[in-house]
Amino acid sequence: MSVRHTVDAVVLDIEGTTSATGFVVDVLYPYSRARFAELLTERAAEPAVARAIAQVRELAGEPDADAAAIEKTLNSWLDEDRKATPLKTLQGIVWSEGFARGDLVSHFYGDVVPALRAWHSTGLRLYVYSSGSVSAQRAWFTNSPEGDLTPLVSGLYDTENAGPKQDPASYRRIAQATGTAPDRLLFLSDRPGELDAARAAGWRTVGIRRPGEPYYEQGVGDHAQAGAFDEITVSRSTT
C-alpha cells in the first residue's frame, strides 16, 4: 500500500515505528534496570536525578521513599512498560552514558534511514516525539548503526516538554513550537491512541504496522497505514 502526503514536516515515533520495540525491551530496559541503584545512591544530588526522584515520590504517593523504594517503583514501572516521565528521565541518563561509552548502539529498521535522508534532502523538516526522554532520543539518533543522524532532525519532543502522547493538546503544543500549521504536519506511529490524538489536533497521520510489533494485530483503526517507510511518499508543501 502506498500513502501520499504533501506537508511541511514529519514527526516520528520511535518504538514500533522507526525502531524495534523488542530492542528497547530486551536490550535497553535491562541495561537501565542494572544501573538504577547506582544512579539513585551515588548521584541523587544531581539536578536532573533529584528532580526525577521527587517526581517518582509524588507519582507513587510515597514522599519519604528512600533509594531502595524508588528503585523498586522504577522496576515495577518497567515491568508494566509505564510511560512515566521520571522513569524515562532516569533511563535517558543511563542510556545516554551507555551510548557515549560504546556499550549501546541504537536500532533502526532498514527502510527508515534511507527515507529520512530522502525526505530531509527535499527540505522537509523532521521531528521526533517519543515517550523516551529528549536526552535518550538524542543519544539514540547520535549512535545509530549508520552514524550520527541528528543533522536530519530539527527538534525532539517528549512527555515532559510536549505532554502525554495520547492527549491532543500535546500535538497542538508541538505544532505551535515548530511554527507549523497542523494540517502541514504528518505523524507516523504504530499506536492508534497516539494517531487519534494527533488527528484530533488537526494533524495528518499514517499508522505504521510492522509484523512482530505489539500493535500489529490490533491495527491502526481508520488511519492510513503502511508497513514500512518506503510505502510513504512525502512531498514538501509549496504554499
Please, could you describe this protein's structure?
The protein is globular. 44% of the residues lie in helices and 15% in strands. With 239 residues, the protein is of the alpha/beta class. The longest helix has 17 residues. The mean pLDDT is 95. Helix 1 crosses helix 5, helix 3 packs antiparallel against helix 5 and helix 8 crosses helix 9.
Compact summary:
With 239 residues, this protein is an alpha/beta fold. It has 9 helices and 8 strands.
Summarize the topology:
Layout: E1 3-7, E2 9-12, H1 21-33, H2 36-42, H3 47-60, H4 67-80, H5 85-101, H6 112-121, E3 125-129, H7 134-142, E4 155-157, H8 168-178, E5 185-189, H9 192-200, E6 204-208, E7 224-226, E8 232-236
Parallel strand pairs: 1-8, 2-3, 2-5, 3-4, 5-6, 6-7
Q: What is the helix tally?
A: 9
Q: Give the termini distance in whole angstroms.
A: 27 Å
Largest sheet: 6 strands, parallel
Number of strands: 8
Q: On the 0-100 scale, what is the average pLDDT?
A: 95
Overall outline: globular
User: Rg to the nearest angstrom?
Assistant: 18 Å
Which structural class should the secondary elements be placed in?
alpha/beta
**Strand order in space, largest sheet:** 4-3-2-5-6-7
**Range of helix content:** 40-55%
* Strand residue percentage: 5-15%
User: Which series of helices and strands comes N to C?
Assistant: EEHHHHHHEHEHEHEEE
Low-confidence residue ranges? none
